[in-house]
Amino acid sequence: MEVKIIRSEKRKRGMDARLLGDTMIVRAPSDIPEDKLQKIVENFKKRFERRKRKKELSRKVNLVEICHKLKEEYFNNVINPLEVKSIEYSTEQTRKWGVCNSRNKTIRISHRLAEMPNWVRDYVIVHEMAHILQPNHSKKFWKLVGRYKLSERARGYLIAKGYKDTDESDIENKTPNSGEQDETIC
Length: 186
Ligand SMILES: [Zn+2]
Description:
The protein has five helices and seven strands, in the order βββααβββαααβ. It is of the alpha/beta class. It folds into two domains: 2-59, no CATH class; 61-185, Zincin-like, CATH 3.30.2010.
């Protein structure tokens, strides 16, 4: 990514950046100190790169489609029908493999999963989908996840990749509709 900095006398404070093709155009006040400018430019750059990577990832695999298929396969006979409103990659998760918001029915999974075998990625999706029904790591939750046959192997794989395994002590402390905590971070 190329960076073009335009310093403006008129601009008193604040900076903004936009992307034009592969060039980031930054507008800054003329009197901003160089080191401060570079720091802010770096942050803009990171933000744009993250956004770009995310876009590329979602083009490569259609997570919504995969999610739909897994839902058909593993959740078609649950008592409460499962609904997933959105699923996407997140580039902000490096230690956690997924976040599920059971109230909004949204799922975000770590972008690192895109480079892992499909059966590992699928495990995480099943895991997060199960959290929409069970926002905890209770026995009921693991029973749902256990429908996916490669669960244990996938957990081992993720731990080996440096992800912290789900906390086994986090059992039954959250129930659906408790209203306290809608997000389950795994
Ligand atoms: Zn979990």
